[in-house]
Amino acid sequence: MRKDIHYPADQCVKCTICVEHCPVVKVTDKFLGPKQVGPDFQRFRSDGETPHDISLEYCTGCRICDVVCPSGVNISELNTKAKIALKKEKGISIRDRLLSHAYMFGHLGSIAAPATNTFMKSKALRWISEKLLHLEKDLRYPSYTSEPFERWIEKYSFQSEKKVAYFYGCFTNFNDPDLGKAVVKVLERNGYQAVFPKQNCCGLPLLGNGDIREARKLAMENLEGLFKAADQGLKIIYSSTSCGMMIRDDYATYLDLQEAERLSEHLVEVSEFLWGLYEAGELDTDFQEINMVLPYHIPCHLRSLGIGFPSIDLMGLVPGLEVDELGTYCCGLAGTYGFKEEKSDIANAIGGELAELLLKSDAEFAASDCEACRMQIENLSNKKAVHPIKIILRAYGLDKKEDEDEDED
Amino acid sequence: MNYDVVVIGAGLGGLMSGITAAKEGKKVLIVGKGIGIITIFTGTIDYLGHYPPEGIRPLDSPREGIAELIAKNPDHPYSKVGMNFIEGGVTAFKEAAESGGVKYVGDLDRNFLLPTAVGTIKPTSLLSSSMAAGDLRDEGDVLICGFQGLRDFYPAYMAHNISTLTVEGVELPHFRGRTIDLKLGAGSSGMTSLTLARKFDDPDFLEGVSMALYENVRDGERIATPAVLGLRRGDEVIKYIEKVVKTKIFETPTLPPSVSGYRLYKALEAVVRSLGVKLLLGYEVTTAKVEKDRVLEVTISMGKREMLVGGKAFVLATGGLVGRGIGSSETNLVEPIFGLDVTGPKTRSEWFNKSFFDPAGHPINKVGICVDENLLPMIKNKKPRFVNLFVAGAQLCGYDALKEKSGGGVTISSSYKAGVMASSL
Question: CB distance A306–B283 less than 8 Å?
């Protein structure tokens, strides 16, 4: 048994359950499927052999294969490691480097947000991105905010004995600061003061594009701040399921940062944290009614985190609110995947079932815990998509206040 | 977190137990390491194909066979479950499947005799309505239609093999095989049944295939196809084709991936969701916290962390040796979560008889956990180890599903009873 390859490849009994559930296989034959490129090919990979199969590129990294496998094979890990090796051999394109460095544009983008957003929508950029960079031309890119979350927290003043650390991630920081504010306010309502460890992008987009070196740099920056929080005995809350998965599992698995494993005791997804309070009888459940049937999509990385679906339970406490878990697997966007020209049709086809269900629903908005899923929901349907915490914020009647605050500003 | 009933295992048995308990109004959690074999098996439920197991001719009535079996063999799972719960399980299963969108037909009074994809004859009791016209005793010769590019389904091979068989007292129809080229442009490795089934959901594709089938079928024939006739549209696809071809058509389950198994899984999953059962997939239950003869909590391994889940009652439906509900080493057989007694040959040299086709079967196929009439696991076959842990499905001891053709029936019956018993606490 080789140490560098986890032996479960040999546990595969070729049952094809992972193939049945793979969202990519469902819509294209360009991907041979998780079994073939995973445990099947693994037998032929050795130090001298690299995985030449280009089909690997089409894996979205959703990890549903791991979830359904009855034999405990770490299929997605085999595939991701092979993909990294392939990138090492072939190199990473400029387009993929750009996409995976979106967090850097965040800094730039927010300095000149209106101009950036106009530019992002402009025909010139569209032309450049489509023709030169092979990016999908019809996809809406997330818009940048003029006040990143990290600037808002400088003004944040609530003090409490009870503290939790909050890893908000770069999307919250640059694209959806309202989510960060919502998390902070909901915590505050329950007596918790959020503190903010020094942080940067979690590195998942880089890992997804095979750029291990850059991902590792970011990871080490993050670990410094997160270890400090952990050493103070703080829980570390995250509101992006993908960031949470990256830090808790992938730093050790792919970036050779085994020390990250000690964070697993501290890392808690935000709804999971609040549900924990509820179970201990400590959650403020003075919710206002929200009368609607809310379509809710489970993000793949929430599934792979293995913490259950706490936001469904949490939103279930709101009177009048019926959470309609859509039963959909993978929205198709898969981080940077759907932004790539050659993959955008596949991404949209994967999201087809989700789109169909969303279009059938009368709701004005839908919910999901992952920013990429929310982007895709907005791309595929006429609905806005929100993080479940924003629903909780509204049930507390705190969303109105926020608008007023902004008016005053 | 606390539940009324915690079901461990998310295969056919786990889902049935969970659905049963939820219908009794209980707060239910189903937790599974994966989704078991449910999506790769044929989706047909065998209750009792052969009894005594050595019998060559399939049983006509599983009900009569089961009654005889219960009278003669008190250690068999059917004897522990009892006829009432066996009947109840049939009804509960058919109701659940239908409310999830897959209609099942059949009962305990009759074994259908179905042709298989490798050309053998399979006795089975409950089957999706899409297979119902396949009984070999029914009128009509059979045109087996395969599709060019589909992997692992060979009509001529199937027809030839069946033509060599006889069943006492039954005049078998004539079979002929045809492979239709639908110009699918399948890659060199071919297409799986699941990929092809998705195409049948497209009305244009369906129209084309129906015409091709019509051109190939002769008067007086019914048509057998691989089980690929649509994934999401239920009976509509078959009804449409039958209107075009003007004869009966039926599906034959394929090698994995199995469309018929996948449809059943999706149906039961939908029911689970509509009943508000929490379904956690990809999670392994590792250990249990017990106090004397009660299970208090189980530990679910969640990535690198653990979660404790409490319950009033627990159902263990983690499968047998193949499904790893029972673990093995060179010298031992174990039930890994609760450390229950496993009855069967401990050392591997005792697992098999000398002849592969030994009419008595092999000792390893009968290993499992022995239970009392409430499905509680026993210590050395004397008294229950726990009073709130019920065992169901393939990990029960004392039967040979392969020889008897009783796997699905034992799973449905015992998991239904386990669901009822767990709800009564």
Answer: yes
